[in-house]
């Protein structure tokens, strides 16, 4: 299989986890719906392209590796919202007034959002089937000249450089691709935490529990109805990328 290598790096990034009330946590590694949206932005798809987005999500095969853990950052937000306040809608159709009675907004809205600061993630990305449009070459061209600005999970998290720098690896599966893609300088010591498919194309099951564990991820999106829906299984475990020592040194 051919995999594009993406380097996700920036001052802040956020990979959404399950939301509980006004608590918005982040995972260390990106989910499938987040990467679908990232690719769709590069290609120029819109949120109204529900069928194309659904098909893109179905075709994406990826593995993710935490090259530098960074730090967890907590952002505590407050906002005083009244019924007459105009808020911008996510569909881009302009501002509108909030629904509900005046008494529904008697106090400030409190929210906690979490980010990863100074983190770096390597993603290996493929498409199955390979000959269907868009192809992997189409994705490479789109990342070279994205249709619109790209961000790492949230609009306030721009990347510090190009996400794809021409790196492509041929590998047996996503796990193999993660081991072949060399980290950059100042990476954490090996082994590095990673995530790869548990079944389907690009999958590799762990031989024993020391090599990884099966996890359930709630990272699928119903793009036609614009809601998160469904779960899948992946493997979370360690990888030993080529050229990285247990001290985090990049070897020639």
From TrEMBL:
Taxonomic lineage per UniProt?
Bacteria, Pseudomonadati, Thermodesulfobacteriota, Desulfovibrionia, Desulfovibrionales
Question: Matching Pfam families, A to Z?
Answer: Cas_Cas5d
Q: Does the keyword Ion transport apply?
A: no
Q: Is Cell wall biogenesis/degradation found in the keyword set? A: no
- The gene that this protein is the product of is cas5e
Q: What's the name of the protein?
A: Type I-E CRISPR-associated protein Cas5/CasD
Tell me the InterPro entries matching this sequence. Answer: CRISPR-assoc_prot_Cas5, CRISPR-assoc_prot_Cas5_N, CRISPR-assoc_prot_CasD
Keywords of the record = Antiviral defense
């Amino acid at each position: 299989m051919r995999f594009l290598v993406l380097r996700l790096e920036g001052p802040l990034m956020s990979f959404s986890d399950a939301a509980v009330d006004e608590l918005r946590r982040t995972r260390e590694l990106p989910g499938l719906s987040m990467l679908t949206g990232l690719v769709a932005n590069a290609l120029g798809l819109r949120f109204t392209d529900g069928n194309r987005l659904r098909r893109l999500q179905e075709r994406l095969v990826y593995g993710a590796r935490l090259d530098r853990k960074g730090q967890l950052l907590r952002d505590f937000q407050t906002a005083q919202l009244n019924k007459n306040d105009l808020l911008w809608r996510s569909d881009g159709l302009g501002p509108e007034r909030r629904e509900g009675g005046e008494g529904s907004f008697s106090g400030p809205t409190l929210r906690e959002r979490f980010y990863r600061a100074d983190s770096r993630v390597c993603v290996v990305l493929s498409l199955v089937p390979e000959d269907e449009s868009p192809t992997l070459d189409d994705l490479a061209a789109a990342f070279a000249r994205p249709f619109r600005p790209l961000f790492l999970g949230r609009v306030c998290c721009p990347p510090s450089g190009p996400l794809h720098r021409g790196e492509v690896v041929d590998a047996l599966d996503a796990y193999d691709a993660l081991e072949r893609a060399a980290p950059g300088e100042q990476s954490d010591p090996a082994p590095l935490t990673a995530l790869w498919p548990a079944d389907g194309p690009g999958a590799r099951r762990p031989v024993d529990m020391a090599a990884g564990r099966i996890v359930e991820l709630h990272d699928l999106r119903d793009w036609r109805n614009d809601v998160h829906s469904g779960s899948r299984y992946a493997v979370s475990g360690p990888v030993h990328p080529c050229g990285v020592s247990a001290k985090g040194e990049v070897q020639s």
